[in-house]
Amino acid sequence: MTGRIAQPDDAGIAEAVALLRAESVVAFPTETVYGLGADAFSHRAVGEIYRLKNRPSWNPLIVHVATVEAARELAADWPINAEKLAAAFWPGPLTLVVRRAEHLTGVGADNDTIALRIPAHVVALRLLAASGLPLAAPSANRSEGISPTTAEHVLRSLPDVPLVLDGGPSSWGIESTVLDLTTGVPTLLRPGALALRALRDVTGAIALRDTETVDGTARPSPGMSKRHYAPRATLILAKDVRDVEVDGPAGVLTYEGADLPGAEILSADPREYAADLYAALHRLDDSGVPTILVQEPPQTEDWLAVRDRLGRAAARTDLK
Ligand code: TXA
Ligand code: MG
């Protein structure tokens, strides 16, 4: 069976709620990327997420909730930093890792933590409120693929998802920032839409993880395997793409001010660049070129999340 895109009107929301209550899955829009949602308490539904995405079982899921109170109920404790960050940035593109309440199992974490966020998208919030369920939701793409920023992207990557609620293109276009609050100093597990500077204004110092991740057992941020967010084409990230020699046709991605002939040109503003990045990679990949050359963005903190995703998309752990 193949999936369907539905408008997020009363009928669409009702259909989505019925699927979620029947322990099935539904893709829905968030302000970052589209998520593949399931009742976080249902082992069956959560198992369906892992099956559809072909996601390794060691990689836990973010649980989406409608209110701070609902988040606290899923946590064993609620540190002062969680209180302050939630007040400052929720609903919004920030995921907080805290100790997990004992009654909650099944979202994949094999330790005692849980990742939580309130998404800032009216459709996501309506779905959460109407279902009354905490929704486990990873990005709605096959594991290691490019995250979806439109309903069409979801069905192209995951044709068997029964229903996709269409909320238009995601406004941030890059995943949430993931911050671990179980460490003495809060630790950045994944750079994302919300800038580090904004977090520091609230919490003070933030520890950065080693950007090198090893595919071993120690996984402080389980999802941060090296090859991730990758197109089918080979992606080459270069300081100057004009220096790179490739066999055959190549797509080129750059940003304003570093213009190159025949290239897709994104904004020189990191937030706008991030908003368009995945759609541009989807387009270049769909054009069938075997190689995508990407002009490396500046090495400043503002570009941290974009550089992280491009670095992962370029990493090749396999020989294709
Ligand atoms: O913007 C987003 O965060 C999107 C939308 C749908 O909310 N979701 C998303 O989910 O990007 P996913 O599954 O693609 O990435 C979740 C990240 C992974 O790196 C995962 O390892 C990490 O969060 N994570 C989840 N639970 C965790 C936990 N208990 N401890 C540490 N990291 C965790
Ligand atoms: Mg993902």
Automatic annotation (TrEMBL):
One of its GO terms (molecular function) is tRNA binding. It catalyses: L-threonine + hydrogencarbonate + ATP = L-threonylcarbamoyladenylate + diphosphate + H2O. Keywords: ATP-binding, Cytoplasm, Nucleotide-binding, Nucleotidyltransferase, Transferase, tRNA processing. L-threonine binds at T32, H64, R117, A137, S176. Its EC number is 2.7.7.87. It is an enzyme of class 2 (transferase). ATP binds at R55, N59, T113, S139, S147, R190, Y229. Residues 10-194 form the YrdC-like domain. NCBIfam families: L-threonylcarbamoyladenylate synthase (TIGR00057). Belongs to the SUA5 family. This is Threonylcarbamoyl-AMP synthase. It comes from Paractinoplanes tereljensis.
